[in-house]
Write a structure and sequence with these properties.
The structure holds 2 protein chains of 2 kinds. Chain A contains 9 helices and 12 strands. By secondary structure, chain A is an alpha/beta fold. Chain A has a 6-stranded mixed β-sheet with strand order 8-9-10-3-11-12, sandwiched between helices. In chain A, strands 2-1-4-5 form a 4-stranded antiparallel β-sheet, with helices on one face. In chain A, strands 6-7 form a two-stranded antiparallel sheet. In chain A, 50% of the residues are buried. Chain B is mainly alpha-helical. Chain B has a domain of 163 residues: MetI-like fold (Orthogonal Bundle). Chain B has a two-stranded antiparallel ribbon with strand order 1-2. The radius of gyration of chain B is 28 Å and the shape is flat. The two termini of chain B are 43 Å apart. Classes of the chains: A alpha/beta, B mainly alpha.
């Protein structure tokens, strides 16, 4: 099998900063089905990594492993220097309690395919729930910050609306704002445009492009090749639970080396 | 416009505008209404003029101090037993849904026992607890006793009634709440957890408010059954509403009028509860499309004025 060698900072021209995300030999199975078969990936601070791949390649599962929504079976994942879900105690690896895992997740924002806004809360309440309830911000400061962020995505007029009054594209932009409101070090996007009507995809992607240009560390699972080409610092192509190929977007998307990448990309031309 | 209008139907374009349509007069409906109202009026007249109902006795005893104190006992029992039942039921439901085998099994046993035996039998058992355990004590299992009470001093009719009704209610509420929690999309809890919310807070802030929409209607049902189930405590000499009217007709032999007093009070209480339930359902349905208030729906289509309309609504 073509498990790639450990990825070293050769991908990034910049100075050797410590990577924000480190995944080593990550394996994940659902019952007997092995979905991830040894993933190694480093993501530097400020890097925008787009993961492409056919359905069932394990890309969404890998994303969900990064914030421990799925527990991995083998290997290790570190975010910001902390091993996700575990800690070393007296030289033995110990599973963390639910509350300790919750604490680790507080610096990771996530945007879901189905938006998952809280339907019983208004847009504003959705956004300030985590900053006020978990990060201990004052309601006033959180509201000001939320309104600022809403303004950036052009939705400040919707602060008092319930999610059902918004279009899919608006809901997803609110979901992005909700994730940004916790001032995350890392943002995970799980197919953020897959549940949207085609004419609503653009507004969400343009919001994401803005974030990418502002130096936010992002890992994006998507089918939007165009977004990968324009916004990604690195494109990772996954297939069958492996990283098959990765590199700068112009290389991976322009002249793919691996036959499976070529076959996948040929469908988009 | 008229060119596009099909030519074969008769009438002008204006005459075909559905906004001008009226509903035809239905003679058959009128006849049915008349017959139904006539029967209802006749029935009301018969009931009102039948001396065996003893309406003067009903009105004489309706606000009798004994009846009113019985009413308070019934209402108090309902509130206390229901409150304990809901809280305990919530804990049981959470235990039932947890991955902890011990909690899951204990909750399962509790529900199995208290749903599987008649409430009347449970009440009699609690009342007669002293025949099984003459003293109640707190201590370390197989070790020393720390405190001890005479069972008969602890288990009064009141405590037996509360314990019996509450534990039985908890078993039913556990299943209602469990169903409600399961009805909430799994993605909601997952999202809250992805944002670093602890399990308890996720449950309290995200899952339970959404589950309430499917928990409230059957809970209303349970509350109404509970009001009526309190009448069972008359068998353990608890002076509830039914017991009070019984104690009066045992002396006056006005059985039917006194039962009518109780029936009317029960109906009045359940009617008030039904109205309350409607308000609660509307509150928990506020994010839902089906129960959306018209003004909020208009606001989505109202364009630039929408924020103002929404401000007025919230």
């Amino acid at each position: 099998m073509n498990i790639p060698a450990t990825i070293t900072p050769q991908m990034i021209e910049a100075a050797p900063v410590a990577p924000l995300v480190v995944a080593r030999n990550v394996h994940k199975s659902f019952d007997r089905l092995e979905v991830l078969k040894g993933i190694d990936l480093d993501v530097s601070p400020g890097e925008v990594v787009v993961i492409l791949g056919p359905s069932g390649s394990g890309k969404s599962t890998f994303l969900r492993c990064i914030n421990h929504l799925e527990a991995i079976n083998k290997g290790s994942i570190f975010v910001d220097g902390e091993q996700i879900g575990y800690r070393l105690k007296n030289d033995r690896l110990e599973k963390l309690s639910g509350n300790a895992i919750a604490r680790q997740r507080r610096k990771i924002g996530m945007v879901f395919q189905q938006f998952n806004l809280y339907p019983h809360m208004t847009v504003l309440q959705n956004i300030i729930e985590a900053p006020v309830g978990i990060h201990g911000e004052s309601r006033k400061a959180a509201t000001e910050n939320a309104m600022l962020l809403l303004d950036r995505v052009g939705l400040s007029a919707k602060a008092g609306s319930y999610p059902r009054h918004l279009s899919g594209g608006q809901q997803q932009r609110v979901a992005i704002v909700r994730a940004l409101a916790i001032k995350p070090k890392l943002m995970l996007f799980d197919e953020p445009t897959s549940a949207l009507d085609p004419e609503l995809v653009g507004e969400v992607l343009s919001t994401m492009r803005d974030l990418a240009s502002q130096g936010l560390t992002m890992i994006v699972v998507t089918h939007e090749i165009g977004f990968a080409r324009e916004a990604a610092d690195r494109v990772v192509f996954m297939d069958g639970g492996h990283i098959v190929e990765q590199g700068r977007p112009e290389d991976v998307l322009g002249k793919p080396q691996h036959p499976r990448t070529q076959a996948f990309l040929s469908r988009f031309i | 416009m008229s060119a596009a209008f099909p030519t074969n139907p008769t009438g002008s374009v204006d005459a075909r505008d559905v906004a001008t349509a009226h509903r035809p007069f239905r003679t058959d409906r009128l006849i049915l209404w008349t017959i139904t109202l006539a029967i209802a009026a006749n029935f009301a007249w018969v009931v009102a003029h039948n001396e065996n109902f003893g309406w003067p006795v009903v009105s004489q005893y309706f606000f009798d101090p004994t009846v009113i104190s019985g009413l308070y006992v019934s209402l108090g029992l309902t509130v206390v037993a229901m409150a304990i039942g809901v809280v305990l039921g919530l804990l049981l439901a959470i235990a039932r849904l947890s991955s902890d085998k011990l909690a899951f099994t204990l909750a399962g046993l509790f529900i199995w026992f208290f749903r599987g035996t008649p409430l009347l039998v449970q009440l009699i058992f609690w009342y007669n607890l002293s025949t099984l355990f003459p003293t109640l004590s707190i201590g370390i299992p197989l070790g020393p006793t720390l405190a001890s009470w005479d069972t008969n001093s602890v288990i009064t009719p009141m405590t037996a009634a509360i314990v019996g009704l509450a534990l039985n209610e908890a078993a039913y509420m556990a299943e209602i709440i469990r169903g409600g929690l399961l009805s909430v999309d799994r993605g909601q809890a997952e999202t809250a957890e992805a944002f670093g919310m602890a399990r308890a807070r996720t449950l309290w802030r995200i899952v339970i408010p959404q589950a309430m929409r499917s928990i409230v209607p059957p809970t209303g049902n349970q509350l109404i059954s509970m009001i009526k189930a309190t009448s069972l405590v008359s068998v353990i000499a608890m002076a509830d509403l039914l017991y009070s009217v019984q104690s009066i007709y045992n002396a006056t032999f006005e059985v039917i009028p006194m039962l009518l007093v109780a029936v009317i009070w029960y109906l009045l209480i359940t009617s008030v509860l039904n109205i309350g339930q409607g308000y609660i359902e509307r509150y928990y349905g506020r994010g839902d499309r089906r129960s959306g208030d018209a003004a909020a729906d208009v606001s989505t289509n109202a364009g630039p004025v929408s924020p103002i309309v929404q401000e007025a609504n919230h």
